[in-house]
Hints:
Layout: H1 2-10, E1 41-44, H2 50-63, H3 71-78, H4 84-93, E2 95-100, E3 106-112, E4 117-118, E5 121-123, H5 132-147, E6 151-157, H6 161-166, E7 170-178, E8 183-192
Parallel strand pairs: 4-6
Antiparallel strand pairs: 1-2, 2-3, 3-5, 6-8, 7-8
Helix pairs in contact: 2-3
Amino acid sequence: MVKDLFTRMLGTVGQHSNIGRNFTCRCGSCKAIRWLKPRYKIRPLVEGDISEMQQMFRSTVLNVNLRDYTNEEVMDWASCGDDVAHWKDLLSQNCYIGAFDERDRMAGFSSMNKKGYLHSMFVHKDMQGKGVATQLLEEVEKMAVAYGVTEITSEVSLTARPFFERKGYKVVKSQKCRANKLMLTNFVMRKCIL
């Protein structure tokens, strides 16, 4: 099927035989093509996943969000994930889903609640730009539709803002929110889904 689609797009497969999940043409006459993104296994997250969620949250904040926040800010923010009781509370108030790779390693997680609030979107530092957040967002947006909400809201970091803007979210306002001890800049964003 993929080969047929590729044949229709280019007219010939010939030298374009390296078709796969991350296809890159090596013929020299065309640019790299990366339109075949891998799909990750999505499943609900439960209390047994908290340890892995904590590790991913901390690693992502300390490594990815460091591009847009100071070292002091990311250290403070990362410390918010240390309390297991806090994670249990989040799981009880939101429906969390995880994306898992072919080896069943968590690549990212996100959440949605019945009011249309997207609380979390974190992608493993080594899985950035590989379609994880896009697939997670598609799934939580489906959840919001199933809940019958007409708009999704989220509080989005400086780092995540461009991703959400590309997905149709609009900034409502910029704000300062307390992480643990420090006040960090983020954005209230909204997307109408109906």
